[in-house]
Each structure stands twice: as structure tokens, then as C-alpha cells.
Amino acid sequence: MIESLKHLPHAASSSTALAEQFTDLAPALTSRQAAIESARCLYCYDAPCTRSCPSEIDVASFIRNIHDQNINGAAAGILKQNILGGSCARVCPTEILCEDACVRNHDEEGQPVKIGLLQRHALDHASFTSYPFQRAERTGKKIAVVGAGPAGLSCAHRLAMLGNDVVIFEARSKSGGLNEYGIAKYKLTGDFAQREVEFLLSIGGIDVQHGRILGVNLHLHELHTRYDAVFLGLGLNASRQLGLTGEDAPGLMAAVDYIADLRQATDLATLPVPKRAIVIGAGNTAIDMAVQIKRLGAEDVTLVYRRGAESMSATHHEQDIAKANMVRIRTWAAPLEVLLDDAGRVRGMRFEETRLDGGRLNGTGAFIEIAADAVFKAIGQSMDPVGLSDEMARQLTREGDKIHVDAQFRTALTGIYAGGDCVAPGQDLTVQAVQHGKLAAMAIHNDIQFKVEASHG
């Protein structure tokens, strides 16, 4: 993947200096800070923070447990609703969810309780003497889960808790999905994603097979025949194209591919780093890419978006991170042409300035050129069409470029369920993928039990 940039020099800074650039973005609370912060919570009845949490964590309850120095109780309450609560505490956009709903926003201080940091504190400091969840009596049923990302892992864990046996099929060499391969390294540091997966699998009853790729060495019709149910947690693995000539030129690549290589690198100094970089996009991935390449040593990084800042899907918090890291944000400019040097490598991009006319985005006829040694696309992901290429998979009803599911995450095919980023509902958030997997697992379990009861009726 990173071969597209092999002509660029490696990171100029030392391995140690670079590692220091990728420590925690938000330092953890000390025990004293957690005690003070938990005391700020009003423990509201019908708490709006809980109602705004996609995974339905009882926020007021776990914060009260922290205040009462019951860290294990706080952690267990979080994990009961969100088994990946540790990573979500680090990457969840709390500023637009629970913390945005906090009633403390409306008092004299105007500062919400630091819910995300308190959730992290509880999970980082819990010390369970035994695994906090026990499996129910075995049902004798076996479910296939495709994808070991947040949705698939959450689904598998809940199914195992309910007494089912689960086999997870994962294309990559590690489990974790976006948490392992797609999150900025300064948000999920070290091997946290893998430690969280190991904890989740400790429930038992879950077998993980890596290197199993749907549509290549794994097929939906086979899974449907061999297992009592199938859950598809496919994620979005294919990068969308700009549709421009020169898109395959050395120096232009998908941001998610570079981030994946960055997260798996054992020595950041070995990564190729452009002196000047352009990032095209407006979401959190675009911000993650721009900030990380700047921290790796790029001198000039410009994030370009075709609309205005108010339309960016990246939160204001994320935009502030970019600005704090000296990333230039250029809005109202649409990519028009990849500029190449005599060797056919990227030397920059030409953009057309844009404006809104009656709600419609139009070009103004004015053009700008930005010099760059590398261009990173962060314009969204789609499902890899290979995964749903067999005859059975083609029968799945689609909603846009995603899989259509009902309220119970059932697809149009009996016995096949789906959740996470590959389905239509939602905002492509890790916390929402976890919730999809959990709810789908309960639907699968109930449907299987109903079939068993009906057969004995």
C-alpha cells in the first residue's frame, strides 16, 4: 500500500522523538482528578447523557460508582452495555454525544462533566479477580460472524454470553478492525486495541480465523448452509475514487492505507514522509491523516474540502486538533487535476474554487494550484464489491451502497444479519457499530430460540 510513496524520504526525526509525537492526545485522569470530576456530576434522573449514548451506557450510574470509589462496579456497568468501552472512551466524539447533552453545559461554568475521560478511568483502573461475565448454558448453536471489527466482536461476545458458539472470520492478520488499523495512533496508543480484543475473547466460546476473505476463500452460501445464523460486520474497506486522471500515480494514495501502515509500523522513522502534503476530505479520517503526517515531520500540510467549514463532518474538536498541529484547512475548493512531474510522480493538485448557488455547489471558474509531494484521499469508504459477489450475496437488498436491514438487523435473507458501517442506519461511529453488534446478537439468539421452541411445539 505504502509502495506508492517509496520514492519519498523516511521520517527525518529519530524513532524516540517520533514516538513522543504519538502519545495520548488526551492524558488520563489521575485518581484525584477523577474524584473531583465525578463529584461534578448531578446524577440526573432520566439523564440526558445516557439517552444520547448510542450504546445505552448508564452514565450517571457509572460516574456515581467512581465517586463512591467502586471502580470495578463502574467498569462492569460500562462493559455490560459496551464491551469495547475502553476504545470508545478514547475515540468516541463525546463532544457531540453525551458531553454535549450534559446539563452542566448550562450552568455558570458552562463545562460538561468529562464523561469520556471518566469512562476511560474506570476501565483502565478496574481490577477484576475473575472475568466479569459468565456464559449462559450452551445452546448447541453455532453462528458465523464475518469481520472482527467493533460490530463483529460485539456481536460475537454477546452471542457467546448467551451460550452460543461463534466463529469469527477475519480477512486481516489481526482482529480489531478500525480500532487496530484505522484510528489515529495518538488516540489508541500502543497495543491497546489488541489487549481489548484479548479481554473480549476471554468470555470463551469464540474461535477467530484470520486470513478468511469473503468472496475469495469464504462464501456466504457456504456459511448459510453450515451455521445456524450469519452476521456480516464487513465494515467499509474500499476507498472511493476521485475520478481524476493520474489517480494511480506514485505519491497519491488512500489515507486509510497510510494510517494502517503507520499503526502497524514498529519504527515510525521507517515511514516515508512527504515534505509537502495535501489531504482531500472533511471527516475525522482526513483530520487524523493530516495531523499524523504533520507529526511525522511534513513541513506543509493542507487539508482541502470542496464546501465550507460548517459542512465538514469532522467535529469542531477535531478541526481544532488540526489547527493546533499547524494543518492548513482550505475550503471551497474541488479537486480538478492531479499534477505530475516529468517522472510521472505527484507534484501537486489543481483545484477549482467553488460556491453555493441556490443550495447547489458550483465551480466559480477560478483555479488554484497547491504544490505537494504526496496527496492522500480521505473522501469516504465503500464496501468491497468482492465480498458480496456470490449468488446468495447478490440477493441482499441494498440501500445505496450499503446493506438494507430491518430494526432487528435482519437482512432480506433469512438467517443472515448485518451491522456496523456496512448497513444503512447510523453515522459510521465505533460506538454505534458496537451497539449494532450487540442488538443483532440478541435478535439472532431470540430468532434461533424461537425456531427451536417452534420445532418442539
Automatic annotation (TrEMBL):
Q: Start and end of every 4Fe-4S ferredoxin-type domain?
A: 32-65
Tell me if Cell membrane is a UniProt keyword of this record.
Answer: no
- Could you say which cofactors this protein requires? FMN
Enzyme class (EC, first level): oxidoreductase
Q: Which reaction does it catalyse?
A: 5,6-dihydrouracil + NAD(+) = uracil + NADH + H(+); 5,6-dihydrothymine + NAD(+) = thymine + NADH + H(+)
This protein's source sits in the domain of life called: Bacteria
Q: Which Pfam families match?
A: Fer4_20, Pyr_redox_2
- List the keywords (alphabetical): Flavoprotein, FMN, Oxidoreductase
Q: What is its EC number?
A: 1.3.1.1
Gene3D superfamilies in UniProt: Alpha-helical ferredoxin (1.10.1060.10), FAD/NAD(P)-binding domain (3.50.50.60)
Task: Work out whether the entry's keyword set contains Oxidoreductase.
Answer: yes
Please give the SUPFAM superfamilies that the UniProt record associates with this protein: alpha-helical ferredoxin, Nucleotide-binding domain
PROSITE patterns linked to this entry:
4FE4S_FER_2
Self-association and partners: Heterotetramer of 2 PreA and 2 PreT subunits.
Biological role: Involved in pyrimidine base degradation. Catalyzes physiologically the reduction of uracil to 5,6-dihydrouracil (DHU) by using NADH as a specific cosubstrate. It also catalyzes the reverse reaction and the reduction of thymine to 5,6-dihydrothymine (DHT).
Q: Which PANTHER family match?
A: DIHYDROPYRIMIDINE DEHYDROGENASE [NADP(+)]
Question: What protein name is recorded for this chain?
Answer: dihydrouracil dehydrogenase (NAD(+))
Q: Give the organism's phylogenetic lineage.
A: Bacteria, Pseudomonadati, Pseudomonadota, Betaproteobacteria, Burkholderiales
